[in-house]
Amino acid sequence: MNYPGGKNNGDLSRCGTALYRALASGDLPSAWLICGDIKDSSDPASEFNCGLCLYYLEEWEKALERLKNAEKLLGNPPEFDIADKKLLFKAVELNGKNGGGGGLIPLDPDSSVSLGRYGLIQVRRLTALCLAELGRDGEAAPLKRFLSQYRINL
């Protein structure tokens, strides 16, 4: 995916979409190669997805760098309203019952959902998992408290 003459925003957008597809289909080698092309992304979903790829490769420190960028790009999106939060709880509960509780999935760079509160939740969840892998439980504690308000336990 090396583009001659440098990359423009369209190239980075295509890389982000290709990375999402590679991760969603389980093609980790392709995902890793695509991550190498995404260096200066302004897309939080692509930063998250690079972090997810690096997490799968057990490169937790490198994953944390990408996740920090993703969180910075997301800022502080508005909280869900009460009705939406209740449905999110139900979705989290059903996801766990249907065997999807531990599975990490990539964020779609073309979805507005990835840019909102759900994106922030996923970024913080993966950050907490990386910190736990590194034995940095003290740093993960505030993230776990944040996630617990959405009934997400690691």
Characterise this structure.
Helix content is 63%, strand content 0%. With 154 residues, it is an all-alpha fold. α1 (9-24) runs antiparallel to α2 and α1 (9-24) crosses α3 (44-56). The longest helix is centred in the last third of the chain and has 17 residues, at 117-133. It starts with 8 loop residues before the first helix and ends in a 6-residue tail after the last helix.
Superfamily (CATH H level) name? Tetratricopeptide repeat domain
Strand content: under 5%
Radius of gyration: 15 Å
In total, the number of strands is: 0
Question: Which short descriptors sum up this protein?
Answer:
154 residues, mainly alpha, Serine Threonine Protein Phosphatase 5, Tetratricopeptide repeat, 0% strand, globular, disordered N terminus
Briefly characterize the structure.
The chain is mainly alpha-helical and 154 residues long.
List the helices and strands and how they pair.
Elements: H1 9-24, H2 28-35, H3 44-56, H4 60-74, H5 82-97, H6 117-133, H7 137-148
Helix pairs in contact: 1-2, 1-3, 2-3, 3-4, 3-6, 4-6, 6-7
